[in-house]
Design goal:
By secondary structure, the protein is an alpha/beta fold. Helix content is 39%, strand content 19%. It folds into two domains: 147 residues, 2-Layer Sandwich (Nucleotidyltransferase, domain 5); 190 residues, ATPase, nucleotide binding domain (Nucleotidyltransferase, domain 5, 2-Layer Sandwich), CATH 3.30.420. Helix 1 packs across helix 3 and helix 11 crosses helix 13. It is globular and about 60 Å long.
Amino acid sequence: MKVLVINAGSSSLKYQLIDMTDESVLAKGNCERIGTDGAFIGFKTDDGQKIERKTEMKNHTQAFEAVKNALIDPEYGAIKDLSEVAAIGHRIVQGGAYFDHSVLIDADVLGKIEELSPLAPLHNPAHIQGINACTEVFGKDVPQVAVFDTAFHQTMPEKAYMYAVPYEYYEKLGVRKYGFHGTSHRYVSAKMAEIMGKPIEDLKIITCHIGNGSSITAIDGGKVIDTTMGLTPLGGFMMGTRSGSLDPSVVTFIAEKEGFTAAEMSDLLNKKSGLLGVSGISSDDRDVTAAEKEGNHRAALAHQMLYYQIAQYIGSFYVALGGCDAIVFTAGLGENQPCLREGVCNYLECLGVKLDKDVNNATIHGRQGKLTTDDSKIRVELIATDEEMVIARDTKAIVESL
């Protein structure tokens, strides 16, 4: 079975074609700048050659046409005919309290994804466009599956997901913590149990998905008991452009003093804060790191704040779990910034974490493995996340059960 995995954004579309007989990736690429004159599709050939093609993509339907053409390209295509695609799996950011597992997409599911759009205004509408575009390009007979970022977090107890605001807003508006990056946290926690050779039911694991968007999750026996992101992906610790959680009065104070609307405050906190806002340099950690090496104080401060906040959440989750067997770093920064891992682990020495600094510094660019010494009380591991594989596996299982 060949499964096409889709991650549709408001102006982008990432795809992978995976052969589930051996879980090999046959093709992968991105459609960028959808809806603009500079739209293009980029993908890699079997021999590693990077291909970029400018093409008209006014909407997601035209983007899927570009994906289709890339997949069956006479020279570079991975398949000869679209009929080889047996099913399509979609990453959906917000599934609310409706979905605690992946589901086959039908009219009811599509309606609920649309209903939840106010909780993920940049993501869910794009996912709907992607699903509808898939139907137009591949036809109604190709099954489509929704895999939700929020689903893995639905095991959180009320004490963890509720906010201390009037209860009516939970009842009327669904105001609660939902959590995100669930597919990534699910993958790396299962992989950690496999590496340790123990049933996940016997383990307490803290998974750290650190990228431009970041979250940390406490997992007890394979079930989430708490996570950092909240009602939206803005919650938790600081990120590339997001502020993370704040004293609510910071929001009202700035809004009153600057005369900002709610939308302008949302833009400030989501797109102009975090590493970018503190450093004044960039949301890209590579740029911030380079500036810190040149002696830039604000760049160094941004990193100090980030490491401190990550360690704070790990410490609080250690308490919530009643101990910890393993800590996992994953995603862009988690996998490729040894200085971040060292900065965080320095705070965790009080918990018995002993980082092997030489191994940590050498573990980048696709390398994985244990980062701590043999006498460390908590094992720290780097595991490359693979959300697409989780989506493909769920899609295969659901389609085969039909």
